[in-house]
Amino acid sequence: MKLLITGVNGFVAGSVLAHAKGKWEIHGIGRSESLANEPELIYHTLDLLDDEKFADIFNKIRPDSVIHTAAMANIDTCQKNKEMAERVNVGITKTLVRLCQESGSKMVFCSTDAVFDGTKGDYTESDAPRAVNFYAETKIKAEQSVLSASDKNVVARLALVMGLPVIGKGNSFLADTIGKLEKGIQVPFPVNEIRTPIDVITLGSALVELAGNQFGGIIHLSGCTKINRYQMALEIAKTLGYSSELILSVDSNAMEGRAPRSNDVSMYNSLARQILKTPMRTLSEGLELTLNFKPAK
Ligand SMILES: NC(=O)c1ccc[n+]([C@@H]2O[C@H](COP(=O)([O-])OP(=O)(O)OC[C@H]3O[C@@H](n4cnc5c(N)ncnc54)[C@H](OP(=O)(O)O)[C@@H]3O)[C@@H](O)[C@H]2O)c1
Fold first, then answer.
1. Rounded Cα–Cα distance for residues 169 and 96 (Å)
2. pLDDT tens-digit profile of 168-200?
3. Per the domain annotation, does 294 fall within a domain?
4. Ligand 1 pocket, residue 31 CB under 6 Å
5. How many folded domains does the chain comprise?
6. Top mutation candidate among 12, 44, 78, 88 for ligand 1, by most atoms within 8 Å of CB
């Protein structure tokens, strides 16, 4: 069985790759050279905006499943570069949806808890999304195209992803935070943003499982701890032995020049706990897992 991972040099993709090893023939697409020193990975260098080359590579691979992690994932960057955010987050996803439809591949799309407006919290898969920023708008449009193409496609809404990168660097706030705390630099965390963070190791395992099982539709991949980002950072600092004085409380919606953020986008993970073999974890369990994770050789 062949698995294609888009954005394979990214943060989430590194864990996906580690969990797919030994189970799938793994193909990965990245823009620059491969960051993974991984003999099992068949690496393809490609800017996914190049539709023709993308179709060419895809049709040579003909994957059974695709885990689509590639995206413009930074909320503020999307707000400032709307045209590019639309092309990457919506355009590339639509191209991939079509290619998967033509070849009968299953598509697992990485969406986000940010599709919710954050006024309610404890969101379930049947709650209606409503965007408060442009990143969320692009993800909602992409979700619709994934779901309307095939019943076997999956929209996996990821909560805030916490962990150390398994390969490369990627978009890891934990790695950035540890780097600053190590130097004694204070780090601000939004007290208004309530999340159900998921560790990157559990997430990689869950996404690989979804690529290979019979589930289709929307699923929330979130941790079992509901917490604001300031409290979360305090817990992490305490576990790692740093002073709590290095963690500062801020309100992200009062910070100038930033895209609006949803307040409470905590998500229930009861569906994930019901249908997946991968257990959903608490913040402390997830932290322990990511700090000690060693990919199989
Ligand atoms: N991290 C989180 O907390 C979080 C939470 C919810 C949802 N998500 C979603 O989960 C997915 C993975 O996130 P992540 O944190 O792993 O992000 P990431 O580390 O930024 O990885 C995204 C990858 O996509 C690649 N990419 C972007 N545009 C591309 C293009 N035109 N052609 C080829 N590759 C391209 C990037 O390549 P370059 O390195 O070359 O730019 C990068 O390696 C994203 O869809 C994100 O929206 C993440």
1. 25
2. 777 899 999 999 999 999 999 999 999 999 999
3. no
4. yes
5. 1
6. 12
